[in-house]
Amino acid sequence: MLYLGDENMGSTKYITSMGELSRKDNSLCFRKNGKNIYIPIENTKEIYCLNEISLNSKLLDFLGRNNIIVHFFNYYGGYSGSFYPKNQYNSGKLLVKQVEKYKNNRIDIAKAIVKGIGANIDEVLYHYYKHGKSEVRDCIDWIREELYELVDKAESEKELLAYEGEIWMKFYSMFQYFINEDFVLNKRVKRPPDNPINALISFGNTLLYTKTISAIYRTHLDQRISFLHEPSEGRFSLSLDISEVFKPIIVYKTIFDLVNNKRIKVAKHFEKSLNYCILNEEGRQIFIEAFENRIETTFLHTKLNRKISYRTAIKLDCYKLIKNILEDKEFIPFSLKNSY
């Protein structure tokens, strides 16, 4: 299936079936079982290949000239890699400064990210607390009364990563109080996911990670130089840093909405085996549409005094980081509560 989505999805196209992607005149053509589906090149910025796709260098040259990024996923919905057009946004000056910031002031940015994760989880849980789920108060109180002090006192990125892990574990332990009982989370399992809730989390996190890769690509930042997560081969670690604070808002709110409103069902929307559990094609389509609607949701940005989408908020966090690197302006990640 070629899933183009509705008008709100605009610049992102998803391919969820096996087939061949090629150039046809000034359009893209997806061919499956002898049938052609044409994709207009105008306004296309990203293509997500969620199944085995055949393509050639002629197509890649065409995509590159039109600044279209292609993200590839494996059978389990995990991220395999991306095709990047020749990067026209490179900045030698910023690269040097980004390396200097990593060497000299990494921990301050890392602390801001961990605090940002905590603040947005607090806000998501507080919604359920206000609606009668008093059990989540323990996690909210821990974030407000202990986490920020622990982060301030931390002396290494390793300590901060431990606190980040603790935040997520406490958050997961709250799911039992407000999520449909069919989606119980006993423990977080990633590669591959082993039950429906882990499948949703892994797929959602991967979509957000690749959205962040695309956002960073359109700035002058270097994807490889990160601050909370260790820079390493085989992944864009800065995308992990930037995406973390948006997970509670975009990924988890999407999951809670789909599960609690029974739009995603255990019996209908998953493939299960002895060692893994993944969304089936119908389940992926439902999740993708909800995810795209969430990331394109607009809100009033309190500093800009205009409406922006969460997709734009991700890019604005990239620019905040650039301001920190070049001008030493304090980096404060996006806050759901403050709307900036």
From TrEMBL:
Its EC number is 3.1.-.-. GO terms for molecular function: DNA binding; DNA endonuclease activity; hydrolase activity; metal ion binding. Keywords: Antiviral defense, DNA-binding, Endonuclease, Hydrolase, Magnesium, Manganese, Metal-binding, Nuclease. Its cofactor is Mg(2+); Mn(2+). It is an enzyme of class 3 (hydrolase). Transmembrane segments: none annotated. Pfam families: Cas_Cas1. Mn(2+) binds at residues 164, 229, 244. One of its GO terms (biological process) is defense response to virus. Belongs to the CRISPR-associated endonuclease Cas1 family. CRISPR (clustered regularly interspaced short palindromic repeat), is an adaptive immune system that provides protection against mobile genetic elements (viruses, transposable elements and conjugative plasmids). CRISPR clusters contain spacers, sequences complementary to antecedent mobile elements, and target invading nucleic acids. CRISPR clusters are transcribed and processed into CRISPR RNA (crRNA). Acts as a dsDNA endonuclease. Involved in the integration of spacer DNA into the CRISPR cassette. Homodimer, forms a heterotetramer with a Cas2 homodimer. This is CRISPR-associated endonuclease Cas1. The gene is cas1.
